[in-house]
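Example 3.2
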Amino acid sequence: MTYNPYTIIGKDRPARWLITCDHAANTVPDCVGGGDLGISATDMARHIAYDVGAAGVTRHLSDLLDAPAVLSNFSRLVIDPNRGEDDPTLLMKLYDGTIIPANRHADDVERDRRLNAFHRPYHQAVADLAARQQNTVIVAMHSYTRQLKGRGMRPWHIAVLHEHDSRLATPLIARLQQEPDLCVGENEPYGGHLDGDSIDRHALAAGRVNVLIEIRNDLIETDDQQRNWAERLAPILTEVLANNGL
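Structure, written as tokens:
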């Protein structure tokens, strides 16, 4: 089977929405370390390798919104598609206490090889789908771990990240805060912007309406949980977009 660094769902679906999932997979292609980064299977199943549960939410949300989706098909430890090409964390050598042996001595030649093999094709796929309509709205789906090593517990169930463009993010946060069972974070547990990241590249640079959603990964471990979150988010996103003249 031919390897492809991304998966597209519903390429011809008509909705304005485009759902992206930068960290959908923990796949290590054979051309990188023979398919092995030198860390344990346990570490490869953790948040350091991919956004646990985010792909499932993306797939269900794509179906419910009748929208296309683009999902990465390589681990963020191979190369991180949610980083600019000159970001020093593009190839992580140490992440949440785990050393990544296959990345420790990766030089500029290896960096460029991985950019060409994985990072750039993924972003070209996103760019192509984002350009299919003039009024595309990008929803970037991510997840985060409840606790980093040596750090405190993170209380938020869901968070919305934004910085330079809050047209969709601010009313979405306000709407989610109306849900009595949700603890909603704003730019938690991370800041809302990195130069050259996916939202910067495909939304902010083109003036596209956008939002980045983070869900705590212990809440989306199973397909049922992923479906339930998508079923909850789809009507809220539709409502917020419509009610704010976007």
